[in-house]
Amino acid sequence: MFCMVLVATAAFVSCSDDDEASSGSLVGRSFSYKYVGVDGDGNPEEDTTTLTFKSETQCEVNTRGYCYIWSDGYKREHWNDTYTCRYSVSGKKITLHNYPLYAWDGDAVFAYHGSYLVNEGGDVYK
């Protein structure tokens, strides 16, 4: 009976997704969020944002996708842009400083859950 309790406890502890983040544990990892939807005119649109932690303080944000724009008829516009960024970690909070995808300067904050991140808007990056 004791062995079963010990095995169950060890399995529970090893599966925890709520470990605290550390800069060292993030290096080399990437997390992505994909949006697929329809714009106000009924045209499909798609955007994937990927966060990659390059070093203990530097990160990269890639956004790629497509949407339709009106230019004497609807035309599909593609993008694939990559930006560098700086980040810091405090407990389970990861802050991307001067987040490059914001129109104005500002930090993006993510909650770390081991295998995924959640931004302040509730989007899950896996």
Radius of gyration: 19 Å
Silhouette: elongated
Low-confidence stretches: 1-17
Total helix count? 2
Decide which structural class fits the backbone.
Answer: mainly beta
Average residue-wise pLDDT: 86
Helical content, roughly? 10-25%
Blueprint of the fold:
Blueprint: H1 2-14, H2 23-26, E1 30-38, E2 44-53, E3 58-70, E4 74-90, E5 93-97, E6 108-112, E7 117-119, E8 124-125
Antiparallel strand pairs: 1-2, 2-3, 3-4, 4-5, 5-6, 6-7, 7-8
Describe the structure.
With 126 residues, the protein is mainly beta. It contains two helices and eight strands, in the order ααββββββββ. It has helices spanning 2-14, 23-26; strands spanning 30-38, 44-53, 58-70, 74-90, 93-97, 108-112, 117-119, 124-125. The protein has an eight-stranded antiparallel sheet with strand order 1-2-3-4-5-6-7-8, with no helix packed on it. Strand 3 (58-70) and strand 4 (74-90) form a beta hairpin. The radius of gyration is 19 Å and the shape is elongated. Mean pLDDT is 86; it is low at 1-17.
